[in-house]
C-alpha cells in the first residue's frame, strides 16, 4: 500500500510513502512519521499518524510558484479533506471529474486506487486529511438520506467521487478540533483514545453540515471573507496582544461594520468572544502541558492583572485556573 508523487515535467519521483498492511487494520499500534519537503518549488513538511483503520495527515508548505504533480495510490479510502490554506485542483487519471478545493473549504471524498494530476496554487499550502477505511466509515452513514445513499453507492461500485458536489466552509468548531488533533502531545493508548474521539467529533460536524440543505451561501464578498479569516489568524498568532475592533479592521483593509457582521456570519460569534475563548483555551493548554505558573500563563495570554485572568478563566470553564493547576 503506497502513495507516490512525481514531478510532471521530469517524471522524477518526489515523494513515496509505503504504508504497512495494518494501515486499515483494527489491532495495530500507533505509528507516526514526518516527511520534510525541500525542493526547487518550495519547502515544508507533512506529518502522518496512523492506527486502527485511521490515517491522519497534516501538511504545511511554502511554494515559490504554482506547481503541478502526478500522483498514484493503490489503496481504497474515504478521506475527510480540509483545505486550510491554498488552492488545489485534481484532474485526470481515474478521477471521474475535477476535484477543486480553495482556502477554508472541506468535503469528504472516496478514492479507490486513484491516480491523476494535482495542481497547487498560492504561496502557502496548509491541509489536513483524515483517511478512514470504507467499512469503518459506512457504519456512520445514515440510511434515510439520498445524499448518503448516493455516496454509499459510489463506495460499493468502487468509483472515486465526492460526498457533496459543492464544498462547505470550515467552521470555527472544526478548526478548533483540527488544532487539537495536530497538537496532541499524549502518548500510546491515551493518544489513540483522544484522537479517535476528536475524529468522530469532526466527522459528526462534517456530516451534519454537508447534509444540511438550509445552509445558505455567505453574503460576503470573497475578498471580505479572506480579510475576516486574516483577522482570525492574526488573533490566534498574537494571543497576548491588545487590539480594538477598529485597529483589527484597518489591519486587513476593511471597516468595523463588515468585520463585526462577517465574523458573526462565518464563525457564529463576535470577534472578542472568539478571542477570549482562544485565550482561555490556550491558557488551559499552557497550564496542563507546560507546567507554567498562573502568573506566567496570565502574562502569556495578555492579562496584566492576574485576578482579571482568573475571573475570565472561571467564566469560561466554571472553575478557577488554580484548581486545574492542582
UniProtKB/TrEMBL annotation:
Gene3D superfamilies found in the cross-reference section: Homeodomain-like (1.10.10.60)
Protein's UniProt keywords contain Amino-acid biosynthesis: no
Domain HTH araC/xylS-type: 229-326
UniProt cross-references to SUPFAM superfamilies, sorted A to Z: Homeodomain-like
Source domain of life: Bacteria
Molecular function GO terms recorded: DNA-binding transcription factor activity; sequence-specific DNA binding
TM spans (from-to): none
PROSITE patterns: HTH_ARAC_FAMILY_1, HTH_ARAC_FAMILY_2
Keywords of this entry: DNA-binding, Transcription, Transcription regulation
Stated name of the protein: AraC family transcriptional regulator
